[in-house]
Specification:
Radius of gyration: 16 Å
Shape: globular
CATH topology: Transcription Regulator spoIIAA
CATH class: Alpha Beta
Number of helices: 6
CATH superfamily: STAS domain
Helix content: 25-40%
Number of strands: 5
Distance between the termini: 59 Å
Strand content: 25-35%
């Protein structure tokens, strides 16, 4: 029994997901996000952004590989920003682009949360 190749139409019907990886660079938590942030995938990001037990948290979300974000993602970012600010820390977004950057601009999140072009810029003081 041989397998037939997957067509482009079948690829587009496959569910999309989200990958979230957390690392630490120079004492800054870096949350690297790949894929789509929406109602179905947002909880994974929300958990990675939880800083309830951290004094003066410093956090960068690497968004260079985020391909889509709906209002659920925007709400997650705003809630994280508020929690981190209340704890005396800061949150920065690195590399949002295309439709994701446009969504942030339309609702004014880019004016609320510091957006940097590159991860290197987001990690610098």
């Amino acid at each position: 029994m041989s397998e037939e190749p997957v067509t482009d139409a079948e690829k587009t019907q496959q569910p999309r997901g989200l990958s979230v990886q957390v690392t630490v660079t120079d004492g800054i938590r870096v949350v690297t996000v790949v894929g789509e942030i929406d109602y179905h995938t947002g909880e994974q990001l929300r958990q990675a952004l939880d800083v309830c037990d951290t004094a003066r948290p410093r956090l960068v979300i690497d968004m260079r590989q985020v391909t889509f974000m709906d209002s659920s993602g925007i709400n997650i970012l705003i809630a994280a920003h508020q929690a981190i600010t209340e704890a005396g820390g800061w949150l920065r977004l690195a590399g949002p682009a295309g439709p994701v950057l446009r969504a942030l601009q339309i609702v004014g999140v880019d004016a609320l949360i510091d957006c940097r072009l590159t991860l290197r810029e987001a990690l610098s003081p």
